[in-house]
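Just curious. Protein, please.
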Amino acid sequence: MDDGDLGTGAENAGAHKMTRRRIYLQRLIGDDLWGNNSGRRNRASYRALVRFVLYLGVATLVITTRSNVPDRHEINVGLHDYLSRTGVTVGSSVMYLDDIRSRDDVLLWVDRALFGSILGQANQSEFRGNLTLMSFNRVTPSVGVCMEAASVLLTLRRASITTNVEPYVTSRFSSLYPRMWLVDSIPAGTASRHAGEDTDTIISENGNYTWKHTGGGKGFRGQGGYLATATLLEDGRSFIHLMDYGADATVNDDESEGACFGMPSTSSMTPEEFWEQGFFDSSFSSLAVEFLAYNANLQTMSRVQVTFDANFAGVIMAKDIRVDTLLLDVYSSTMRYFEVVYLIATCLYCVAFIYHGSKRRLEYFRDAWTWINGASISLSILSLVLWFSYEPMLEQYLVDGRFRDMAAFEELVVWNSNYSRASAAATLMIYLRVVQYLANIASRVQLLSETLRVGASNMAIYVSYIGVILGGSAAFAQTYFSSFSLEFVSLQTSFLNCYNLFFGKTDSLRTVDGTAAQMKNLFYIPFMVFFYFVSVQMFNAIINYSYNRVSEEMEPRLEQEKIDKKRRAALDTTNTFWWRMGTLAINRLRQEFPALLGPPSDPADRGTADELDQSDVIDALDEDSKAKVEHYLQRELHKGIPDGSFNIVLFCIFAVCYIWFLSANLSVDDNFQINRVVERSIASVPTHTGGRLLSFKEIATLPAVVDWMAKSFPLVVFNTTPPELKASAVAWGFYADTAVCLRSWNCLVDMRQASDSASKLVRITQRRTRQEKNEGRFHPDTPDRARFVGEVVNGTSLDASTVLMPKRWLAAIDPTEAPDPAAENSSLLTLPPGLSDFCWETMEGDEASFSSNGGFVCLLDADYSTFVSQIDQLGDNGFFTTDSSSWVVDFAMQNSNRQILSYVQILVEVQRSGLVVKDYRVDSIKLFGLDKWYENFGSIALRLLPGVMYMCLTFRFIYNLRKDFVKVRYASRGRNKGTSCITAVIDFFRYDVFNCLELVSISISLVSAFLYVWWMVRDAELEQVKQSSFTALLRYCQSLVWTARLYNRLSAINILIIGVRPLKFVRENARFSKLMATLWDSSQDLRWFVVMLFVTMSGFVMLAHISFGAHVSDCSSLWSTLVYCFRFLLGDFDYAALLAVDPMAAFMFPYLIIMYCVFTNIFFAIIDRHFIAIDPPPFQWKKQLRPLLHRCCRCVDWEEDHQMEVDPNADKQPGPPSRRDRVKKTQKRILEIQRKASQLANHSDERKAFNFEEVCEFDPRLEDVWHWSTEEARLLVADIERLLNQKRNASNDENFVRNEVMENFFKPKLETSKGDMMKAGRQMRYACKVDELVIQHDQETLAKYAFLLERQIFTHSRSKASLEQEVDRLKGENNKMNMDSWGKPQAPTAQDSSQARSSSERDTAPKPLGPNTSRQDAGKASGVDTAKGLSTSATHDDEREGEEETANNDPTAPMEFVRAGHEMKDALSALPKFTGREKGKKSH
């Protein structure tokens, strides 16, 4: 553990006196100048992290290799599932293990199912080894049993029965119950209960046999009982021996009964006699059946235990199968080196742990990481000690012949289980330590870890609080629901189910009948409201407060790191070796490709002091100015090209056409229907094997596969269509009488093969694995002392051995993968005699076989009788053997109703454990019928039309993307003339993620279009393929299916991207921008939190994989375990199954609390803290509709709704108080209270200096100055301390000052400062020019806006003048009409009216103004009275004030533009009005 010192100045911090100078320094740079900041952890180097990650990799490799979970899982799950699916035919039904209810059912299942499976059937002997389960798991003999036999141990436990029942049932009921049990039950394997367990000798009903009780140390789990050994012989006979381990026990050496080497038994009998002797009477309490099985393929030994527990009610309440597997060949020289490295590294970390513990003592153990480190080191050492102790025990077990002793194997299982538990816990702790190293390197990870530390105490208190309530709820559920459901019969199960309810898993409560249990809902609703809603939100509140509190504490440090990062980025790194080599390589490439990469650059040409360097000037600006300049220079590049309404409409059409095209061509619903037809056809025909009926899904062994192929597969092909339906279809002419169809309409395609006259219907491809002699090793370097093949007797100089399994497989063969020469070669391909008429051998690359992988290929005829005969020949002539590793049955099928061609594959693979893995695949393709395109022209056109439209739009988007790139490239070239094409392309896709998505979508569209065209070409070749051969048709279907799968996957990815691309159209929206800005601000914390979450979850994944992977299928591989642990978070888990496997399931309790209640709430805390609470501007509907409607609807003023930018100098409106602000204020109050409390506690008048941040609110500029001054002061103090230390060691002060101080210290500083000053001068001149350009650009924008306002004002003024003239004319006409009607003076004549009108025009016409004309004269000259003009001016002033007030209220309207508009209006009102002719003259 790489912990650094806490600080060099911590011990001397109190030695400094509180001088005036020190107070000033502390006010400037804070209290952490001389001493260590307690909140800052020591920074571990990246090298330490890399070292620990390597240590983590070595530990993970060692532990996963030694555990070997996949092989153990293959054996355990295979045997467990096989025995669970092994049933007994009782009448017309089959009784499986889960169906057992009484002791008679137990005896029947053990005799027929278990013993029958081991002995096997006579017609299956060629497909399996002798006395094996699943062909390869040889049941071994126990102590005293011959090597040629197999043995099964039986342990019976009986309850004591008493006739003195009055103390228990009173005399009133003693006549009804004359006998009773003295104990409720005696589960198998539990400790002996002498008061309630029967230990008397049992005498058989005929009196010929006695069965003695054996005490502890023997029997199932060493708990004693009535012991018996069943010996199973290769000839099918079986015997049961009643064991007696007493001193006067007799010895049985009858080899005909399988007894050798002195078996201590009192008597022997057949199983039929044993079940009939009355040993299993009403006292039966439990029966345990156990045996060992050896697998030579995987070199494992497995212990199988089957237990049956009865209770006082006479019901078999528990039935369980447990399989524990140990690897026999664990030797590996390579892994030994890794174990040594793991041990040495652990010891080094242990030494470091002890050293830091002794140095820092109690303070070191106050950190939670110390305990995690100690647990990790201790568990790692414990796991290695357990493994190094386990290896010699295993070797002794193999060499000394102790494999017969069940107790010896039990001891090995215990040691191996302890190793798995210790190594799993060690792996979890090691992964958690990675978080500590990340926290010491990245402050963001430290922020998250400190959040957990701060909130741990509150969460612990709250967990205790809700734990009490959960316990009470469990007690209530066990009390009330136990009579309605088995899920609540005990307090343990009730607590587990209530815990499941806490996380939303309600399956257990659904088993309770709500009608009978009327209080179910009264319990369910309050429980879920409190735990599922309130409690989870309480965790949310705790985490949110802790995160905000720690964020406020670490805010100065995070800001300082930002400044340091920017300062480091600004340093000149061109003098480094890698920089020079990279520059040289790039220049050479630019010399070769100047048009693509740009002209070569000379790193030595840095410019003179008078030249302007843009990058240097920008980097030297303060943060605000630099951000503004960069935003101005790269505004077009970062902003992206906005999409118009036309592009939005095109994209909508594109999406609709693409979905339409996929729906018309993929035919997903039709393919699903055909898939269901094939599934039902295969599942509807069971096979009769081993005395029971099995469906295709229930097949688990090689003999069952052979029986299904021989008996059920012909019925699947020929008998799934009812005869009456087929006759009706033939009569109506749907298909020929010779057609073979599945479910009436899905007819198999039959064709001839080469010169064969018979039509072929089905192809079978078999591949065989290589077998070798079993030498008792799995690894090639395993020494002789670690090998196991069976009993070895070293009586002479030569070893005389009896091997349990003489041969072993090298590897299992996946039917879809290419052949492995080491496991499969041509020497194995010898066709059995009698099959040459329809079978032949093929090599790799032969297209007649499935996927051209070679093997035996058989083509079955389309005639039913010939088909069945060929299947029988396969079984009779040795086609199916123990070498058979995989089969593929494939055929083509066509549905004429939908013009769909289907390719069906039935895949069967035999694993090395003997378990059969089977699957079927149905791939359907909708045909075009291009051979008769004139008849199918309409359907073909409807399928191609949307595709043509979407491809045209795809090319349109390509053009738009290129156009956007040209715009960005032109803008970038205007700023940086040396920018290369590749740099511009990278910038174009880097700054806009939607460009990347669009490029990917376009690329997928083009590739899928090519695949679609190739699909059509291949579709047109169908008729030509039908004329060749049957194998060519299957090869054609296989290639077409591969193309369809690839096209389907690409289309799925493309449709997902198309669903994301519309976000591009709303990115200019203020609300969407706010959400994106929130995610961007919180992205850094989220990224580190995801890393922390992944590391923590990986530890629990390794824990679950190592602990439960050997027994739980969901944890058999790392990927499946990761999915399983993720499903835990969603409420999909089963604690009962994990607890049945291993008590290590208790580790998964904190997993749910940590991951579900803590880590998921950190996401909310991060988003809540960085959420941008800014009210967006109102929606401008006229601005959005203007591009579409401004040409057709000219009556609407589309410019009216435009708004300007918000005034940057306006005061921000205070919003509602946020959680972040409240935490910040609370934190300040807490610090103030703590400071006052410390002063009162110490009784000291010494005052502590305050930092700037503690006494005033920082704006960004003051904060930058403060950080800069702090850093400069630190550097100055460090230099002074260094010089003082050197001065103490110097012999001559003058020489020291002259040489060290002046020459080596001040002179470089002076040169550096002078260079910085010259550089600052250049930057100042360049900054002036940049500011001038920015101001000029702003002035041009303002002038353009003023010119636009001038034009609008002039237009409205002309309209106003015209309207006023028209109003005056109408008023005059109105006055004339009134005078005529009331007898007033008559209206003037037409001549008078024209003269008056011309006179009025002359009076009202504008006159030119002289230089001395006043405003009143101007009003008179323009025909307007001065008073009227003044009133009009006042009105304008009032309007101006109203507009300014409106502008102040409107945050988007700048005051400068409003005032400029008023000034322009005043200037226009003072100008003379021109007539049309004069306007033309004055226009220039």
Residues 169 and 177 are 8 Å apart (CA to CA).
